[in-house]
Design a protein that fits this description.
Layout lengths: L8 E7 L5 H13 L6 E7 L6 H11 L3 E5 L6 H11 L4 E4 L11 H9 L4 E5 L8 H18 L11 E4 H6 L10 H7 L4 E5 L16 H18 L3 H30 L7 H34 L17
Parallel strand pairs: 1-2, 1-4, 2-3, 5-7
Antiparallel strand pairs: 4-6, 5-6
Helix pairs in contact: 5-8, 9-10
The structure holds uridine-5'-diphosphate (UDP) and magnesium ion.
The site of uridine-5'-diphosphate (UDP) has 16 residues, from strand 1 and helix 3.
């Protein structure tokens, strides 16, 4: 029997200065995946580490047939590293996790089970999170609440890297910046069925976290982007155009009212604050309206240049084709 050409399952892990964790990580991944009896690959991406991660990776690749080792030229960040792993992966199912042993590879079969139930994306929920201190947990809790509210995807924990996806989903989403955290929200925009399962979480054994408190603010900015994408990606004019027209209408009503006073009561309207409001409302309205038109053009270019369809098909059923 020859080996299958393509693995069913790809595990994608970004690594930045994780030389101490790496051997244990591979060992634990193999221990939980080999017994499943389905072909898999481990796509491990060294994100330009300054420690010995790349050399450990090379040694492990020589010893492990399932391993696909990638070494990026410099440190790009977690999202590009994951994106590189996605592009190199071949499995129909993709699982991501962190390379610092904080996620437990033993949870992977549970995530896969949920995919088999028909979900497109299964997200881990670190319900007993082992990260030190309120300074990490509190901002994260607030951010999770806010993200759930704004994106409409009801998950408890967006920051957990342990997730499982169907391949089509990952291919539909183009990642950039630090948007890997919003993959569930972006997937939801693409019409994915999403669920979450409780997973283990361990304290970091080696090395240190690559992020500080400033991450909270960057996450909030990214959230604004995602919110905008969700609401306006295909119809910016509906929002800006409507606001613009409403503002122009308000300005005109006020201006007419002032005009009536001037003509009927011969009132002196030159120094009325209301005049200022009327003029501002009209000018702002025209601006909003034009902005909506520009955004509309911009989105048109965006969609056409990407060859990005404005819909996603879950399935197409055809008759037998016997006419
Ligand atoms: N990571 C990466 N490139 C970076 C920063 C982080 O590939 O520039 C990897 C890192 O090695 C780890 C994962 O992304 O596997 C998550 O990073 P970390 O554990 O520092 O984040 P935290 O768990 O503190 O949220
Ligand atoms: Mg970590």
């Amino acid at each position: 029997m020859s080996a299958p050409l393509r693995p069913e399952l790809s595990i994608v892990v970004p690594l930045y200065n994780e030389e101490e964790s790496l051997p244990l990580l591979v060992e634990q991944l193999l221990a939980s995946l080999r017994p499943l009896g389905r072909p898999f690959e481990l796509v491990l991406v060294d994100d330009g580490s300054s420690d010995g991660t790349a050399s450990v990776l090379r040694v492990m690749a020589a010893q492990t047939p399932e391993l696909v080792a990638m070494v990026l030229r410099r440190n790009y960040g977690q999202t590009p590293a994951m994106s590189a792993g996605f592009d190199a992966s071949r499995g129909d199912l993709i699982v991501t996790l962190d390379g610092d042993l904080q996620n437990d590879p033993a949870d992977i079969p549970m995530l896969l089970e949920q995919l088999e139930q028909g979900y497109d994306l299964v997200s881990g929920w670190r319900y007993q999170r082992q990260d030190d201190g309120l300074s990490r947990l509190l901002p994260s809790r607030l951010a999770n609440r806010l993200i759930a509210k704004v994106t409409g995807v009801r998950l408890h924990d967006y920051g957990c890297s342990l997730k499982a996806y169907r391949r089509e989903l990952v291919e539909d989403i183009s990642l950039y910046g630090e948007l890997h955290r919003f993959l569930p929200a972006l997937a939801f925009i693409e019409g994915a069925r999403i669920t979450e399962v409780k997973v283990n979480h361990k304290a970091r054994q080696f090395g240190q976290s690559k992020y500080g408190i400033d991450r909270t603010f960057r996450v909030l900015m990214d959230l604004l982007t995602v919110w905008f994408m969700k609401r306006f990606l295909t119809r910016p004019m509906h929002v800006f155009g409507f606001g613009g027209l409403a503002s122009i209408a308000l300005g005109l009503v006020l201006a007419l009212y002032l005009l009536a006073e001037k003509l009927l009561a011969n009132a002196d309207i030159g120094n009325r604050p209301l005049l200022l409001v009327a003029v501002l409302a009209i000018v702002a309205g025209v601006q909003l309206f034009c902005f909506g038109l520009l955004a509309e053009l911009q989105m048109r270019t965006y969609h056409e240049s990407q060859g990005r369809p404005i819909y996603r098909v879950r399935e197409t059923l055809r008759g037998s084709g016997a006419f």
